[in-house]
């Protein structure tokens, strides 16, 4: 559920953070410092050249070659580290961000003027930033985390969703099941009436499973009730000094720039959303896995997210979902707090970051609800501390599960739903076959 009060993707601190608000002079200085360090043979500088210069071989040994030991080449490395292909592209991006920030400061033309507009987002993380950027349209937070829990093809599907969200996040959010149900129903009603009420609807999403499955839900609805104008902003990366996880990290001027990149939603995209929404609610995950393997030409980010969703099935070989495996791998390296584990998972290990901290906590709690523990947990300074401070230490059994010598499902973890697929505590279930990128019942 995406009020996401502690979600790193939604925090005010991150949204205003310097990593996505770049300064050209600072980047010039970084390039000069990198070149100087590389000329002196400092290992980290040489590693950066090896990792991000297109003409380096992956390792620069103990010294730079003459053709790399130039400021222009160091500038190229800095630009590529920040997510852009060249120094001129980095300079142009920074200048565009500066102009957008100055435009906001002057109170220039309202970006979404002229048409009654609804901005739809799978959380509240950019609502205030849109206002700061000068947008005046209405905002709809449609934030049901369809990436986890039951998503069923039945009339009472929203009631099932409310029960799941209340169980997984309700206590931490401080909301009752009734409050959660009312919020889900209200969001659904606003979605249902949007085409009639607004001249333009703009969908703001990024590339991960959380966002893209909600995008599929929105597209499936609008395929049946097409609005007069439907546009999409779907982002996979943004230049900055840290890993891009979501739109909530970005400052207002970035949202103003992204407005210029929005695209009309095609009929093919609407049909693709319909297909994914239907397959997501099926008790058989094979069509969804097949679709992800074949790709979705109209919405390539949706295909990648669907594949990552399927990887949350138990895997053949270990019985672990990909998230469960990544968590145990981190704990196998060293004991970590829940907060440290979440941060490292999202910023380094997760191939397609999609979790809010509340969903992550729910997954960790489910992992501990087995007949024999795969990790132990304790608070270093006593029990009355925030839950992210709890320290987790893997057990020998956890290492055995990670190695595949003990099947995770043999420990009878709680039954869980992944869309329309029930994963029971015991017995046959759908599993993910990584070798064929498909689902099999075994």
- Which class do the helix and strand fractions yield? alpha/beta
Residue runs with pLDDT of under 50 for 5 or more positions? 1-17
Radius of gyration: 23 Å
Strand content: 5-15%
Highest-level CATH class of the largest domain: Alpha Beta
Helix content: 40-55%
**CATH topology name of the largest domain:** Rossmann fold
The tally of beta strands, per DSSP, is: 13
Overview of this structure, please?
Helices cover 47% and strands 12% of the residues. It has 442 residues and is of the alpha/beta class. The two termini are 32 Å apart. The strands form 4 sheets. A 5-stranded mixed β-sheet has the order 2-1-4-5-6, with helices on one face. The chain has a 3-stranded mixed β-sheet with strand order 3-10-11. It has helices at residues 12-15, 24-39, 43-52, 71-81, 87-106, 127-132, 157-173, 177-197, 209-224, 252-259, 267-280, 286-294, 300-310, 322-333, 338-349, 357-368, 396-403, and strands at residues 117-121, 138-141, 149-150, 200-206, 230-235, 263-264, 336-337, 375-378, 391-394, 416-419, 421-423, 430-433, 438-441. Helix 5 (87-106) crosses helix 10 and helix 12 packs across helix 13 (300-310). The chain folds into 3 domains: 23-81, no CATH class; 107-279, Rossmann fold (3-Layer(aba) Sandwich); 322-441, Winged helix-like DNA-binding domain superfamily/Winged helix DNA-binding domain (Arc Repressor Mutant, subunit A), CATH 1.10.10. The protein has 17 helices and 13 strands. Mean pLDDT is 93; it is low at 1-17.
């Amino acid at each position: 559920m995406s009020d996401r009060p502690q979600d790193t993707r939604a925090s005010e601190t991150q949204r205003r953070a310097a990593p996505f608000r770049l300064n050209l002079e600072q980047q010039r200085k970084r390039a000069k410092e990198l070149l100087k360090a590389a000329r002196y043979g400092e290992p980290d500088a040489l590693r950066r050249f090896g990792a991000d210069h297109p003409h380096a071989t992956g390792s620069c040994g103990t010294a730079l070659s003459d053709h790399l030991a130039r400021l222009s080449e160091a500038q190229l490395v800095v630009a590529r580290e920040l997510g852009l292909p060249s120094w001129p592209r980095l300079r142009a991006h920074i200048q565009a961000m500066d102009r957008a920030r100055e435009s906001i400061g002057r109170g220039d033309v309202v970006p979404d003027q002229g048409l009654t507009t609804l901005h739809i987002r799978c959380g509240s993380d950019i609502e205030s930033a849109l206002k700061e950027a000068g947008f005046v349209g209405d905002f709809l937070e449609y934030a049901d985390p369809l990436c986890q829990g039951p998503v069923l093809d039945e009339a009472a599907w929203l009631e099932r969703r409310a029960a799941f969200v209340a169980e997984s996040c309700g206590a931490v959010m401080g909301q009752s099941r009734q409050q959660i149900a009312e919020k889900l129903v209200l969001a659904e009603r606003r979605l249902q009436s949007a085409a009639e009420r607004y001249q333009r609807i703009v969908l703001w999403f990024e590339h991960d499973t959380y966002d893209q499955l909600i995008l599929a839900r929105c597209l499936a609805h609008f395929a049946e009730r097409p609005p007069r104008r439907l546009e999409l902003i779907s982002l996979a990366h943004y230049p900055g000094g840290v890993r891009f996880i979501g739109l909530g990290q970005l400052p207002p001027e970035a949202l103003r720039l992204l407005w210029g990149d929005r695209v009309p939603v095609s009929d093919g995209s609407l049909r693709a959303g319909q297909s994914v929404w239907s397959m997501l609610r099926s008790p058989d995950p094979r069509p969804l896995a097949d679709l992800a393997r074949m790709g979705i030409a109209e919405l390539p980010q949706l295909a990648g997210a669907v594949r990552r969703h399927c990887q949350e099935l138990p895997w053949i070989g270990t019985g672990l979902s990909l998230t469960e495996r990544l968590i145990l791998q981190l704990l196998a390296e060293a004991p970590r707090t829940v907060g440290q584990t979440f941060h490292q998972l999202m910023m380094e290990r997760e191939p397609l970051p999609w979790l809010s901290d509340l969903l992550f906590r729910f997954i960790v709690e489910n992992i501990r609800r087995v007949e024999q523990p795969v990790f132990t947990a304790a608070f270093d300074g006593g029990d009355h501390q925030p839950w992210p401070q709890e320290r987790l230490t893997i057990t020998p059994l956890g290492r055995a599960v990670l190695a595949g010598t003990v099947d995770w499902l043999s420990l009878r973890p709680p039954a869980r739903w992944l869309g329309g697929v029930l994963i029971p505590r015991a017995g046959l279930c759908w599993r993910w076959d990584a070798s064929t990128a498909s689902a099999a019942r075994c």
